[in-house]
User: Fold this.
Amino acid sequence: MNAPLIEAEARATPVLVASSLSKRFPVGRPRLFARARRPLLHAVDRVSLAIGAGETVGLVGESGCGKTTLTRMLARLIDPTEGRILFGGEDLAAIPAARFARHPARAAIQMVFQDAEGSINPRFTAFEAIAAPLRRLRGLRGAALAASVERAAERCGLPKALLGRFPHQLSGGQKARVGIARAIATEPKLLILDEPTSALDVSVQVVILHLLAELRRALGMSYLFVSHDLNVVRLICDRVAVMYLGRIVEEGPAEAVFRSPAHPYTRALVDSIAIPGQKRAGARIRLTGDPQSPIDPDPEACRFHGRCPRGEALCGRAAPPEVSPAPGRRALCHFPLLEPA
Amino acid sequence: MSTLAHARHVLAENPVTAVAFCLFALLVAAAIAGPSLVPYDPLASSDRALAPPSVQHWFGTDNLGRDVFSRVVVAARLDLGMAFAAMAIVFATGTVAGVAAGFLGGWTDRVIGRVTDTIMAFPLFVLAMGLVAAAGNTVANVIWATAIINFPIYARVARTEANIRREAGFVEAARLSGRGTLQVMICEILPNVLPIMMVQVSLTMGYAILNTAGLSFIGLGIRPPTAEWGIMVAEGAGYIVSGEWWIAFFPGLALMLAVFTFNLLGDGLRDIVDPRRRS
Amino acid sequence: MPQPPLLAIEHLAVEFRTRSGVVRALENVSFAIARGETVGVVGESGSGKSVTAYAVMRLLDPSARVTSGKIVFGGLDMLAADEATLAEMRGRELAMIFQNPRASLNPIRRVGDQIADVLRRHANLGARAAADRAVALLAEVGIPDPSRRARAYPFELSGGMCQRVGIAIALACRPALLIADEPTTGLDVTTQATIMDLVAELGAARGMATMLITHDLGLATERCDRVVVMHAGHVVEDAPTEALFARPRHPYTARLLAATPRPGVTLAGLSPIPGGLPDLRRDDLPPCRFAARCDRRRDDCLAGPLPLQIEGARRVACRHPL
Assistant:
């Protein structure tokens, strides 16, 4: 099968569709006799994203852009303030996070964390960590449970002998494998990976990335891959979404977005990538100015205004529309850039 | 490195902790086996009253001719027993309350917080006195009173430890595994908090023993002729001026030793249990 | 006659005494940094890069022992100097910025005061003058509204701003050498670029040399004049940046590059480095610590001391370089 056909298929059969998801947090202390409404921090603002079957979608953005909040909403660990999450034919956002633990879809959406050590209970062995979701979500016990755990470990290249160890007795790469084994144990449809390799040495990272690619193929999963390492994102993602201050400012096929970014922020991001072994040719795009505050942002202005190298008067007066600079791509900008970087 | 190997290392590096462990073993032995091993019946009076320490009576005899040594050893069972009982109660209740407050937050935290604040508003020993005086002068009430006045510190420690771990990665992972809030609290947070609470037990044990002895010193709780360190010190206090120092001295020494042992034990246990101190 | 280097590390060997044995963290480490030069020290975790930095600053853990070698900084023998002389040096001539910016700032003191501390200690400024200069330094490192921010506590500032404060503290007395230990890990890619630009600009303005310790080859490529590659406590290659990456001569350098994601290389094209770090507690470590993982290993690689091949400005510690 060639790539464009897979892409078309993926778009035709999305595994998950997030529709206008928002998360707003009230800021400041609750007042007993509040006269004015408390200010709201717009962590995620009207984000819509579709993840196709077998697809790897990258999610990038600086700290504070809302990627963590978005991933926690999609994993149903926190509730959105508004919006829908369509998965398997139902709207998961309608089910409160506290009750989602008992929902059948819980086993179908899992997560791999950045800090593998912190994500495993220090008092559990690797076996117990991997067994937990199988026990709760698949109801396995005894020999069947042990067999499943061993199969998951084997798939992740984790030797059986290490299953009896505690997290502090495992190396960085081994802990990462335990985290992945636990996440794939229930054979989820969607795996959310939050910076899974950023704490690993470059050589171990290669091994883990190969493992993730192999698992995706073998189990037919889709990935949402969050990372700040744009070289890795470019390497393994089919599509990429760029977030800034709670909004998706650009989205499209990874190679196209990296080659010719349409949004000025994406352009600055791509330009700041340091290529190992190759010194940069010209000057780098510098973002001057302070980022806007995510608290009660001006609805009639672009969030990137003030830092954008291309800022025009219109950007401060009207919210940017979502435009499609090329088929399959979208950007949230009044003046998207169309020529390659 | 396994817990046992780490424990051995800690004991090797801290001879003082090793000594504390030996003393602890000695105290427990005295509590368990003491009454069957002592040379004299602790309640039996004799006509050799106020005899100074000698080969026949290692710690001398008191005003009723009772052997002080036998009484000191036998009293270990009562003093330690009451302190253990109180600590067991407060360990269970304080840990659960603290973990719930720290993990669930919100109203649970506020209510438990106010309860602990109320208890801590009083000087704790005075509160214990008041509780025993009001509820009745029995051993059981002394145990309850001791438990109540120690509740705040257990609840606070447990609350802090639960709070720190509330946002931990493994809590999120547990939710992803299908665990509900209550399950996360019991199966994930509690096992991490328990070792720290056990250290807390041995640290406050000394205080509990002092509390029990203190209450009986002023006449609340244990009554004569029962052998108990606090009463013995109270009875012997009057005789110090006339020169019969041994009646109050040896029970006082035993008290000091017990408190000292448990404090040292607590420090040593903390070194063994706290994973961050492992290098 | 060429100027003597600002920092010369010669045959440095450092050991750590631990419960499970003696760890031979550094062995025969030699390299030099000239005035105004930016040298990158790269390697994976456990390579000894940070240990080298702490050894230069004489801030090693008490369980560490320098078993041989010399560290000469600005003509001063660092290993023989007494604590008073070293305390004078640190902050004034030699400064360091750390990986976790928040952790290197005192959480209960205002940032302006922390900068002023260095100025009062080393520049002999009075309280008022030091406070004013601290505000000026905050402006220099690009912190907006510096007079207000000087009164802020570290927790009120973002990671990037804390790192800027760390730079302000380090550069307050215009040191001759700045050691930057993974200064951009944990920062966003845009903040990384800005921070490194700042260090480069401030450095260039004062002719300051920089030792940049990092595992990020991209960062090393962009910022360093020369790169020193370390593996398991050894220096394996030391060459000008472009030459090093264009044509690596040590097998480890080549494999490190081959494992790093970069444009034009697919996932299948990346290859991990086989094996793992040797156990540095062993006392039978071979002279070449990479030989066990090297696919170019020959019989004579494990025999005899490791030769240092010198080719112009490049040094390679390999018997059979690429």
User: Anything to note?
Assistant: The mean pLDDT of chain B is 87.
